[in-house]
Every structure is written in structure tokens, then in C-alpha cells.
TrEMBL record:
InterPro entries: ClpP/crotonase-like_dom_sf, Enoyl-CoA_hydra/iso, Enoyl-CoA_hydra_C, Mitochondrial_ECH-domain. GO terms for molecular function: hydro-lyase activity. It comes from Rhizobium subbaraonis. GO terms for biological process: fatty acid metabolic process. It holds the Pfam family ECH_1. This is Enoyl-CoA hydratase domain-containing protein 3, mitochondrial. It comes from the Bacteria. Keywords: Fatty acid metabolism, Lipid metabolism, Transit peptide.
Amino acid sequence: MADVVQLRKSEGNGLLSEERHDAVLRLTLANPPANALSIALMEALSAALDKAAADDGIRVVVLAATGSLFSAGHDLKEMTAHRADADGGRSFFEKTMRMCADLMLKIAGLPQPVIAEIDGLATAAGCQLVATADLAICTDTSTFCTPGVNIGLFCSTPMVAVTRAAHPKQAMEMLLTGETIDASTAKDFGLVNRIVPKQYLRQVVDKYAAVIASKSPEALRIGKAAYRAQAGLPLPEAYDTAISIMVDNMLRDDAKEGIGAFLEKRMPEWKGSPE
């Protein structure tokens, strides 16, 4: 197994730290206290995800954060400063929302599974980030909210991810009230998978990441894309899509190797497995 490899800070801005351990890439929002999704931070995160997508050696990506907030969402100070622009800030607001949407689409479309590691408050676009990740594991003191309605700004873009992760009425409850929910409620709503004590968060996330990273890289890529492809389809079309994908998967090298290894009662050797 490879040693831990520390990667460089993103583009010299210090907003995002990168750390790689074997086939797991950890991206940590490093702009406390708010870890706001400013233009600079979104650019850094987007660039890091592009590199991960192009690296066949990376099988899992973890999104974490420093400080007491996972992310406070958009940088409202940055956005408010552009109200002085000639168009009242419209162009900058459109740029911010489009960049955030593109970032969420990039996470959803990333070949590798993405695990959100949350310790603290995830609010507005920060909650959107959690809802967009494939899996989410949080501490028992973490909290979540979509509070835009409290400041006259309905969380319409976070709504897209939240309504796809949480149950419909619970998602609307969050969006309409703007109230903060605790970790247990977030799990009941469907926003997070697991709740763990703070001292065990990194250990549990690392374990999940390692288990997933041990699987076939082909199967992980195919499976994540297949899940997204069928999720919004009517049932017959979903099965048609899944059949086509699974037949193609059966013809791939890792399926041949995995099934052969199972029948022969040995460990599989995945194509491109790290040394």
C-alpha cells in the first residue's frame, strides 16, 4: 500500500487543502470560520475535482472542512459588495449561482463516489454541498439548515439538491421555515447516512472510504453513473437503462475478474489496483 501523500495547496490561495492516502483523496475547505463558497473557493474546489476525475488512481473523494462550520454557503459579503455594480449585481449573482450549480453537477457527475464529512453547521449552499454528495457522515453535534427565507432570499438553488436527498415534505419544511435541524433529524430526513461522536468522525469516514476504494474501480464508475441515470426515469425506462448498463458491465474486465475470483474462492485483482 502507498504511503500518505500530501498534495499542494490549491493555486496558492490557501482556501482548500488536499491530502491523498492510497486511492482516497481528501479535499478540505480551509477558510474558517465560515468556509463560505466564494468564487475563489469554488474555483479551487472545481479545479481539484477536475484533477480527481482525470486520475484513475483515485477511487473515492472525501469533502471535509476545518473549523466549527462545514460551510456557511455563499459569501454574502462578496455578493453584497457587487450591488454597487452598474447592473445592481445581476451579472455577479448569475455568475455565482451558475458556478455553484456547475460545481454541484461536477460532484454528481464525478466518476468517483464523494463522501461529505461534516462536523458543525452546514447551511444554505453548504447544506446543498452535503445533499449533493453521494454519502454524508456527520458528528452528533452537526446541524443543517436552508435559512434563506429568513433573509428574504428563498434557498432555490440549494433546494434542487435538498429535494433530491430528503423526503419531499421534510425538504419543504426546511425550505419554508429556515429552521436549523440537528443531526438526528437530518438522518431522519435523509440528508445524512451516519452520525458518529466527534472523536471518531475521521476514523469512520476513513473506514468507509477505504471499504469503497477496495472495490472494482470500473464498477464504482459505472454504478455511480447508472444510479444518476435511472433515478428520475419512469420504472420501465429505469429498468431498460439498468439492463443496458449491467450487460455492458458484465462484459468489462473487472466483472470477468470479480466473478472468476468469486467462483475460484480467491481475492480479485482489479485492473489498475494500486500497488
